[in-house]
Design brief:
Number of strands of chain A: 0
Structural class of chain B: mainly alpha
CATH architecture of chain A: Orthogonal Bundle
Largest sheet of chain A: none
Largest sheet of chain B: none
Distance between the termini of chain A: 44 Å
Oligomer: heterodimer
CATH architecture of the largest domain in chain B: Orthogonal Bundle
CATH class of chain A: Mainly Alpha
CATH superfamily of chain A: MetI-like
CATH class of the largest domain in chain B: Mainly Alpha
Structural class of chain A: mainly alpha
Strand content of chain B: under 5%
Helix content of chain A: over 70%
Number of helices of chain A: 13
Number of strands of chain B: 0
Radius of gyration of chain B: 24 Å
Shape of chain B: globular
Order of helices and strands of chain B: HHHHHHHHHHHHH
Number of helices of chain B: 13
CATH topology of the largest domain in chain B: MetI-like fold
CATH topology of chain A: MetI-like fold
Order of helices and strands of chain A: HHHHHHHHHHHHH
Shape of chain A: flat
Chain lengths: 297, 293
């Protein structure tokens, strides 16, 4: 009898072990991710300035946020940056993937060259491009020395164009990764279908337009999701490349949130901007993850 | 997601093939240009940079900028060079990677081989946590680290990186173990093997590749992190990325571009090294985080 209870206890313990092992991670996630999200959301409705404080002010911070020219500028910049970043990365990524897929002898050499920027920190990328784009010592200066004296390229110093330099550096960093995603997609396409279409006299252009590119839909979707979430989170690159300048010309929501919360002591407004950022990403990620997880494995 | 090294069945004429090769090479130059400029200018005396051509090879070769970046350059207020920050980064990365990988492996094991009601929902919540903009947790985390007495310390940063790395490490191991035959686990269970015994004897020995992928991913991400490093570190616990940024942005005195370039390469070296020796796994990690494997 006693032995049976002991055995029973042991089996029951065995049943609980998996849940106990998972428990710390679940607790950590619930508290530090979802609990913190709720806390920040709560702060966005309070009069927090330099420190959290708990006087409720309703939607005031959101109202103030959307009155601030800096925030409008950050949103505008994000729209420009994200659109160009996603489109250019996809175009370059797809082009390189298609070209690399033409039985290129040096593929093994080229692929790592296209991809290595992904291993670098955005701070390193920003530092490198900051000097490359600097008219005084970078590309402009070099081309002048090479004899093209009328060459002018000083976007990084011009308020209206500085945001495009962020696009250049970001595309440099991530387009190789997008190439790898498309290449994996291309390698998954059945060559038999292509051969059959070729026998029917389809041109290469039509092969790609009608058969191959439509089959890359999952890769396009992944690229879009990854790139858009990277765009919304962009912070380090702007800090290293332009410092948000010249003036505030390259301010993005991420840099806005940081400066309002930690240097301008407007924590309520900073929290509200963080909530808006989260909502933006959730609008993209939640449907995507839901679809990914719903499918039977 | 195995990259089969076999091209498409589409074929091209001779002229097109030349054009393709030229285009690919031009892009290769585009990707290599910044690295080339950094390398070349990090071994030049400063005068050759400000007065000369950034594309030109050095007339006088010197490793002085590297020595300066490593041990004497002014970072913040102190002329310590980047060395102490490099050490901070290592002290932060090693435990953070080890702990988050181990926890991710156990989580993946539970979520695939010991399934229970609601496990997919839990996993979904963990997965979403990988993608949140971390701005949403900065304020409460800063408060919490302060309360725990970990503000401005390396252990504080380790804690933060473990917490926000768990989603990805769990994702990797879950996807990997999902393809692992559950019958083996059941058979071992019938033979009386317990939870941990099955894990250490059956799954772990076969987890080599996914461990490498996860470690590389975590190492790269944590080493390259700037947001947490700049938000939660103190002067003495700054990681390499934050110190590099301070070095480059410092506005005092003459801008020593050659030292900045040497510093940038020093900051990039560990992750570049990992990428060069195990690029295949690096790419797999990137893919596993985006496309279903």
């Amino acid at each position: 009898m006693a032995r049976e209870t002991a055995l029973d206890l042991r089996t029951r313990l065995q049943e609980w072990i998996p849940k106990l092992v998972l428990a710390p991670s679940v607790a950590v996630m619930l508290v530090f991710v979802y609990g913190f999200i709720l806390f920040t959301a709560f702060l966005s409705f309070t009069d927090s300035k330099i420190l959290p404080s708990y006087g409720l002010v309703g939607w005031h911070n959101y109202w103030r946020l959307f009155q601030l020219p800096t925030w409008s500028l950050a949103i505008e910049n994000l729209a420009i940056f994200a659109a160009l970043y996603i489109v250019i990365c996809s175009v370059i990524g797809l082009t390189l993937a298609i070209l690399l897929d033409q039985k290129i002898r040096g593929e093994g050499m080229l692929r790592p060259i296209y991809l290595y920027p992904m291993a670098l920190s955005f701070i390193v990328t920003g530092t490198a491009w900051k000097w490359l784009l600097d008219p005084g010592i970078g590309l402009e200066h070099t081309l002048h020395l090479w004899g093209w004296t009328s060459f002018h390229f000083a976007w990084i110093k011009e308020s209206d164009f500085a945001i495009y330099t962020v696009v250049i550096a970001a595309v440099w960093q991530t387009s190789g990764f997008v190439m790898a995603m498309f290449l994996a997609g291309l390698r998954g396409i059945d060559n038999e279908i292509l051969k059959a279409a070729q026998m029917d006299g389809a041109s290469n252009w039509n092969l790609y337009r009608r058969i191959i590119i439509p089959q890359l839909r999952p890769a396009f979707l992944s690229a879009f999701v990854i790139l858009s979430h990277l765009a919304v989170k962009s912070y380090d690159l702007v800090v290293a490349l332009t410092g948000g300048g010249p003036g505030r010309a390259t301010e993005l929501p991420a840099t806005f949130m940081y400066s309002y919360t930690f240097t301008r002591n407007e924590m309520g407004v900073g929290a509200a901007s963080a909530v808006i950022m989260l909502m933006t990403i959730a609008a993209i990620m939640v449907p995507y993850l839901y679809a990914e997880l719903k499918e039977p494995k | 997601m195995s990259a089969v090294s076999q091209g498409t069945a589409v074929s091209n004429g001779r002229f097109t093939r030349v054009l393709i090769h030229v285009t690919l090479l031009v892009f290769a130059l585009f990707y290599l240009l910044p690295l080339f400029v950094m390398l070349v200018n990090s071994v030049k005396p400063l005068g050759e940079i400000t007065g000369g051509n950034m594309m030109a090879l050095p007339k006088v070769w010197t490793i002085q900028p590297w020595l300066e970046a490593w041990s004497t350059a002014q970072i913040g207020v102190q002329p310590t060079g980047l060395r102490p920050y490099f050490i901070n980064s290592i002290e932060m990365v090693v435990p953070a990677v080890a702990i988050s990988t181990l926890m991710g492996a156990l989580n993946g094991y539970v979520l695939t081989k010991w399934r229970f009601r609601g496990d997919t929902v839990l996993f979904g919540l963990m997965l979403f946590s990988c993608f949140i903009p971390f701005q949403i947790v900065l304020i409460p985390m800063a408060r919490l680290l302060g309360l725990m007495g970990l503000a401005g310390t390396v252990p504080g940063l380790i804690f933060v990186h473990v917490v926000y790395g768990l989603g990805f490490t769990t994702l990797y191991f879950r996807n990997y173990y999902a393809a692992f035959p559950t019958e083996l686990v059941r058979a071992a269970q019938i033979d009386g093997a317990g939870f941990f015994r099955i894990f250490t004897r059956i799954l772990l020995p076969l987890s080599g590749p996914i461990i490498v992928v996860t470690v590389i991913w975590q190492f790269t991400n944590i080493w390259n992190d700037f947001l947490f490093g700049s938000s939660f570190s103190g002067q003495a616990s700054q990681p390499m990325t934050v110190a590099l940024n301070n070095l480059v942005q410092s506005s005092t005195g003459v801008k020593a571009y050659n030292v900045h370039f040497a510093g940038a390469i020093l900051a990039a070296l560990p992750t570049l090294f990992v990428y060069i020796v195990s690029g295949r796994f690096f790419v797999r990690g990137l893919m596993a985080g985006s496309v279903k494997g």
